[in-house]
Amino acid sequence: MHAVIPLYPRFTALDAVGPYTVLAFAPGWTVTFAAAQAGPVTDDRGSLTLAATASYADVPAPDVIVVPGGPGTLDVMEDEALVGWIRRAHEHARWTTSVCSGSLLLGAAGLLGGRRATTHWALLDLLRTFGAEPVSERVVEQGDIVTAAGVSAGIDMALTLLARAADPMTAQSVQLAIEYDPQPPFHAGSPATAPEGLAERALALIT
């Protein structure tokens, strides 16, 4: 199985690295970071750079597409090099997935019409722009499209996908290998559980 993660300026690192870690640990899987041109791509914090080892043209037909999100998403919504690649590669892929605002790029590629989908809680309503039904869930499976909520949900999505693509035991083995056993110190990871007024402070960190 070959998974491709497209990178673009100001992507969120965990959106890409979380699923990469899960899928790269899976037996028989390879994961490639791609961009319009091979080379370094810097994340939204400006201090972490990942190397795209392939261009979009080099990877026209992956088995799995994982589109990360980040503040840079809105800047590339009309980037035909990226959006066009997603649209074309989807025709060959077994699964097309996204993390966080990456689902907006799936929408821009015309892949979410009539489907349930999720994204970061602050952007859920934007999914309606693409004819999708916004769903406030951690992972949403809709046939060959799987979307994940914000940032850390990409790990959940990748494990969910791995269970489908291989089997639950493989997914659980990877989960144990990476010791993914979330025990957050606060119940503040969702607007439904966060203290009053925290959403505004959180938004200031990501805009």
From TrEMBL:
<dbReference type="InterPro" id="IPR029062">
    <property type="entry name" value="Class_I_gatase-like"/>
</dbReference>
<protein>
    <submittedName>
        <fullName>Glutamine amidotransferase</fullName>
    </submittedName>
</protein>
<dbReference type="GO" id="GO:0006355">
    <property type="term" value="P:regulation of DNA-templated transcription"/>
</dbReference>
<dbReference type="GO" id="GO:0016740">
    <property type="term" value="F:transferase activity"/>
</dbReference>
<dbReference type="InterPro" id="IPR052158">
    <property type="entry name" value="INH-QAR"/>
</dbReference>
<keyword id="KW-0315">Glutamine amidotransferase</keyword>
<dbReference type="InterPro" id="IPR002818">
    <property type="entry name" value="DJ-1/PfpI"/>
</dbReference>
<keyword id="KW-0808">Transferase</keyword>
<feature type="domain" description="DJ-1/PfpI">
    <location>
        <begin position="3"/>
        <end position="163"/>
    </location>
</feature>
<dbReference type="Pfam" id="PF01965">
    <property type="entry name" value="DJ-1_PfpI"/>
</dbReference>
